[in-house]
Amino acid sequence: MKRKRITQLFPFLLPIRRTQRKLFFYAKMCFDRNHYAKAKDPEFLPFCIYETKSKLLNDNTGFDIKYQENKVFNLRLAAEPVNGILICPGETFSFWQRVRYAEKNERYKDGLCMVNGELVTVPGGGLCHLSNFLFWLFLHTPLTIVERHPHQIKDFPSPDEDEPDGVDATVREGWLDLKVKNNTNLTFQIKISLNGPYIYGSIFIDQAIGHRYGIINREKSYFKKEGKTFERVSVCQQKIDIKSKQVISENLLYTDVYEVGYPLPEETAIAEVKK
């Protein structure tokens, strides 16, 4: 039987624990020798290396739609300190280094969030939509992934069926961050906007390059263990020549294994794994 954390036994200690974690979380950033991206420019760099959009509302959560609308409100707040940020050579982008300032003028509303393996409503819920979106942008660049945490459970199907699996990045202030480092001689800039039913994102650079990046899945499979269904999927980045459209190279970035929390189609092949 899994041991309970002290904050589960004594819930009144949770606010103290959260404050403690945040203090250490940001103090560590002050001494980890990373140069964090902080500069913003209202004028965007001349070359767009990648652009995309994502549907804001997901009707498959099983919760009141107001929590999805609250998520959109939260995303507008969180996108502001990220929009226009420059990531210069040698700099590291941290999700929380930027988003921590989002509540300067307005407070977050209650949105959906995964807590102790359950989907619940919390203030600021839904920010993982932004971290997922940013990570998807970063995957289409040569930026180096420094810190990224997948969700342990995928609770509902992605609203975009064409999107590869295993490309999420969950965040939790004080615990989990999303970080990428610029180990190139290029300067990158993030553009984020919300308009109508979509969030739009672009990555700009200061120099023209002759290739682009694509993300594909390899070795995708499902298995059951101890009554639970899991997905195993490898995520690869392809470097593609813009003129010829030929794949120049392909690199395995990582392999994810996570629990599937929704029914799969009946025809899905699922292997049985013994204990």
Automatic annotation (TrEMBL):
Coiled-coil features, chain-numbered ranges: none
Pfam families per UniProt: VanW
Domain of life per record: Bacteria
PANTHER family: EXPORTED PROTEIN, EXPORTED PROTEIN-RELATED
NCBIfam families assigned to the protein according to its UniProt record, in alphabetical order: vanW-gen
Protein name: Vancomycin resistance protein
Upper lineage: Bacteria, Bacillati, Bacillota, Clostridia, Eubacteriales
